[in-house]
Every structure is written in structure tokens, then in C-alpha cells.
Design goal:
The protein is built from twelve helices and 15 strands. It has 524 residues and is an alpha+beta fold. It is globular and about 85 Å long. The relative contact order is 0.06.
């Protein structure tokens, strides 16, 4: 079993700089001794070297300005390979994915800090020779903080105030020096960019509500922002009737929706009208059959769930759509619940425990084998008429995502299982994961759904109409089952119907939620 404690100590332990890397010569020697066949451990050693440099204030500016870019050039190649291993495009059986992830995320932060320390030292020492490198180092630092933010968000970890202070002060420095808009290549193999553009990418990714996305969607939005960031400008003068967001570039807080009291020389403001118009036009073209690649976007942009995501971003970033508000008032609660994760586990439980509130339920004679899955133990901290807030201890390799379908087991056998969907996740510094669950149905019924011209049967969940919560009837089906163009046979309680799906309400990580129309009753 891999020793995560030792890895964390290796990556984050305090080191005496004089015993390791403390100048260009020692960095050259260290790189020459790196294991060529072990990319993971090589990158770990570079991270240790960066920590030693970042913790050593006695290094003179000349050595720091030579050593950091030197380590950067070597580490970039290793980092690209480690990202490939994590995403499965590169195979390395000797590199456990949790260890790879921890190393990747540690590198983004340490390298960003390293370049920022270069800038800090340059401002303390009046050195004309360093002036030409300030813009380049500031741009590189901002790019690394963007990667740090992205990889934090895909793990549902918010940026702490110290990181926001570094990011904001970095832009503050560039703005004061008058080179925030200067465009140049951060590296010879990269496109031209600017410090302002990289800063805007961080701000807009934060305002995209990553706590409500799946990890691969966080990465997708980051790729979209590579194309979109240039459509936003930061302004120094507040215009409440035009602008939508604001950031204090001398503060330690993330961006927020504009209020009239957010005024001062260090505040910057922006509007999104131009961006929203562009996203709307892009959505229209994609829905009309245009290929994402022809629009300069990743191919998976065209997936139904990602088109929904793009529309959700339009709503979040638009002045025309009110800010999201809670449907029902929450009240404090304190109790433990048992939770099943995923549609398969829920169906397996319902198959095994036919609800006593509906004794006439007689589904198909071909049932899936009941799944003997131990439910997760979560603690409820607040509740409302439409959901609950919970927290639980998250393991380092926990794979729960926003959009997960969950089943909350009843406290007594005379009550039904409640099905909900995880709407948001936030991992705290102590390892606690906080989650918000929206209730989908309190009266679930397992049904069979079969394409009319096929023999393959899918197990699904029927949710009847709930007038009190203004929810129409719907089906929760596996993603591969859903097709608006096909007709299906729905079988439940000894009856069957020919149906057609309506437009999906939502595509989640493991299911599609959709209404349907009944075409006719058929023979069971």
C-alpha cells in the first residue's frame, strides 16, 4: 500500500536550503542526478528544490533569476507527462494516480510562488538588469496560478485567502508597472498572452461556480476561457448599471458580484455583455449542428451535458438573469444519514427492498441482482423543503462529483428512500467535504425502459408528479438509454406503455433526467 503520509512529508516538509538547492550550480547538479526513468520522483525532487529556494531569502537576485527559469524548463516537460498519466493518455503503472495528482498540484503552486518571489526580490533590489525579465516572470507566475486554481477547483477545493492575496497582488504589481496588457510568449512553444488575460481567466473560472461542476467540466471551462478571456476588459471606474463583477486587486478575496459600496482606487470592474453575446451565438451554432472543432473548441463541447453547462455559464455571467436564490428557507439540523451513491446502487437497493408504501408494485421478472453495497455515513447540518446540507470525511481518493445521484435511506422501514442529486461540493482544509443535495423524489419506483425496436432493457426510476413542489413526472435513466428520437416501452406494476422522451431536464454524471409523453397503453 502506498504511504501517502511519507509523500506529503516529502513534498511539503521544511528543508534547510544550504543542504540542498541554493544556487544555479546546485540546481544543475541536482537535475543531473534525477532518475531519467522515473518521471514522478524526478518531479518530486524538483518540487523539493523549489521549496528550498522559496524558503531561502539569502539567495541573491542573480542566482534566483538564473535558477528558477532553469528548473522551470526541465519541470514543464515532466509536468506535461504527469498530467498525461493522470488523464490516462500516458501509461505508467509505477505511478499511482493519487501520488501523481498530489505532485501535479504541488508543482503549480510552488512554481507560481517561485516566480513571484523573483518579482518581490527585484522590487527590493534596484537592478536594471532584471527589468527586462519582470514582464515575463509575472506572466509565467499568473499562468501557474491559473493552473493551481483549476486543479484546486477540479478537486472541489476553494482557493484560500493567502493564494488570492498572491494572485491579486501579482496583477496589482503589473498594473502599477504599466505592463499588464503587454502581449508576449511565456514560452517558445506557447501562444502570446498578457498578464491581464491570464488574470481574467482565473477570475471567470472562479465565477463559473466550479463547486457545482464535474472535474472534467472544470477543465473544459478552463479551455473555453482560453478562447473567451480576451472579450473582457477590466475598468477602474465603477458603472453599476453596466458592470456585473468586481475584484479588489490589493485584497485577499475572490471576485464577487458588483455592489455600489465596492468603491476605491484598488477596485476593478467588468461587464460581460460582449462575452455573453459570443457564447449565445456559439451555442446556437452548436445546436444547429456545427462541429465544436470548427469553432476552435474541444470536441466534447458538443455533449448534451456540456451544452447545458455553457448555457448555465450564460445565466451566471449575464445581467439579464437574476443571481441564483434558494427556493426554500434552510433550518439547522443535526443527524446522521446513510447514503447510496449512484443510480445502480439505488436501483439495486429498491429491487431488494420493495417499498411497503406500494405493495402492488410488480415490476419485471428479470430483475438486476441486488447490490450489497454498504451505504456511506454522512452528517446533516441543515435542511429545507427541497434538500439538505451535509458533511462527511473525504478520503484522498474519493471520487464523488457534483451531479451524482444519491439515495438517502429511510430512518424507518415504513418510509421510502429519498432520491436526490449532489448540487455542490466543497473540500475543507481539514479533509471534511461539504455537500448540498437537492431532492428529486420521495416516491421513487423502479421501472423497465426498453427501446421499441431493440431487446435491450434498461432499469430506471420513475418519479411521479409532485404538485406541491411544482415538479412534473420524470424518469431517471442511464445516459446511454436516452434518445429523444426513439420510442420506448415503459413497464411498471404489471402494466406497460409506449412512450417518447421529452427534452432532457438535465444530464448528470450517471443519469439523465427527462419528462416523457405516453403514446398508448400496450399489453404487458
Amino acid at each position: 500500500m502506498f504511504d501517502f503520509k511519507s509523500l506529503i512529508q516529502t513534498l511539503f516538509a521544511q528543508n534547510e536550503a544550504q543542504d540542498g538547492v541554493h544556487d544555479f550550480r546546485s540546481a544543475t547538479q541536482m537535475l543531473g542526478e534525477l532518475p531519467e526513468s522515473d518521471m514522478l520522483m524526478a518531479q518530486v525532487e524538483i518540487i523539493k528544490a523549489l521549496q528550498q529556494l522559496n524558503q531561502n531569502p539569502r539567495i541573491n537576485i542573480k542566482e534566483r533569476f538564473r535558477t528558477i527559469p532553469y528548473l522551470d524548463e526541465k519541470a514543464r516537460k515532466l509536468q506535461t507527462q504527469l498530467v498525461g498519466i493522470y488523464h490516462g493518455t500516458i501509461t505508467d503503472h509505477g505511478a499511482p494516480l493519487p501520488q501523481v495528482l498530489l505532485t501535479i498540484t504541488a508543482f503549480w503552486k510552488e512554481m507560481g510562488n517561485a516566480y513571484q518571489l523573483c518579482l518581490k526580490q527585484a522590487m527590493q533590489v534596484s537592478s536594471k538588469s532584471s527589468g527586462s525579465l519582470l514582464v515575463l516572470f509575472t506572466l509565467r507566475a499568473m499562468r501557474y496560478y491559473f493552473e493551481h486554481a483549476q486543479w484546486n477547483y477540479l478537486r472541489y477545493m476553494p482557493l484560500d485567502s493567502n493564494t488570492w492575496r498572491r494572485i491579486n497582488r501579482l496583477y496589482f504589481f503589473a498594473d502599477q508597472q504599466g505592463f499588464a496588457d503587454g502581449r508576449l510568449q511565456p514560452y517558445s512553444d506557447c501562444a502570446h498572452s498578457s498578464i491581464r488575460r491570464e488574470y481574467i481567466k482565473i477570475l471567470m473560472l472562479t465565477l463559473a461556480a466550479p463547486e457545482k461542476m464535474q472535474p472534467d467540466q472544470v477543465e473544459l471551462v478552463a479551455q473555453w476561457l482560453e478562447k473567451w478571456a480576451g472579450r473582457i476588459e477590466l475598468e477602474e471606474i465603477i458603472r453599476p448599471h453596466r458592470q456585473l463583477f468586481a475584484i479588489n486587486i490589493a485584497g485577499s478575496s475572490p471576485p464577487k458580484r458588483l455592489r455600489r459600496d465596492l468603491v476605491g482606487e484598488n477596485w476593478r470592474y467588468w461587464f460581460t455583455d460582449t462575452l455573453i453575446q459570443h457564447i449565445g451565438e456559439t451555442l446556437t451554432r452548436l445546436r444547429n449542428g456545427a462541429k465544436a472543432s470548427d469553432l476552435g473548441l474541444p470536441d466534447n463541447t458538443s455533449l448534451p451535458a456540456n451544452l447545458e453547462l455553457m448555457q448555465r455559464l450564460c445565466d451566471l455571467w449575464s445581467r439579464e438573469v437574476p443571481a441564483p436564490a434558494r427556493k426554500h428557507e434552510r433550518h439547522t439540523s443535526s443527524k446522521n444519514i446513510r447514503v447510496l451513491l449512484g443510480l445502480d446502487a439505488i436501483i439495486g437497493h429498491l429491487d431488494k427492498h420493495t417499498p411497503v408504501y406500494d405493495p402492488s408494485a410488480d415490476l419485471s421478472d428479470k430483475k438486476t441482482n441486488p447490490l450489497d453495497i454498504d451505504p456511506a455515513q454522512w452528517a446533516v447540518e441543515d435542511e429545507s423543503a427541497s434538500g439538505m446540507g451535509v458533511h462527511f470525511q473525504s478520503a484522498i481518493d474519493d471520487h464523488i462529483q457534483a451531479g451524482e445521484i444519491v439515495g438517502v435511506l429511510p430512518e424507518s422501514i415504513d418510509r421510502p428512500l429519498v432520491i436526490g442529486i449532489v448540487r455542490r461540493l466543497s473540500k475543507q482544509s481539514d479533509g471534511q467535504m461539504k455537500a448540498g443535495i437537492e431532492t428529486i423524489t420521495t416516491t421513487p419506483l423502479v421501472v423497465d425502459v426498453t427501446p421499441a425496436l431493440e431487446n435491450k432493457r434498461y432499469r430506471a426510476i420513475f418519479s411521479p408528479e409532485d404538485r406541491q413542489n411544482q415538479q412534473s413526472r420524470l424518469l431517471i435513466v442511464p445516459p446511454e438509454c436516452f434518445d429523444e428520437k426513439l420510442e420506448y416501452i415503459l413497464a411498471a406494476q404489471g402494466k406497460s406503455y409506449r412512450i417518447r422522451f421529452a427534452t432532457a431536464h438535465e444530464h448528470t454524471t450517471s443519469a439523465t433526467l427527462a419528462g416523457f409523453s405516453v403514446l398508448e397503453k400496450t399489453h404487458a
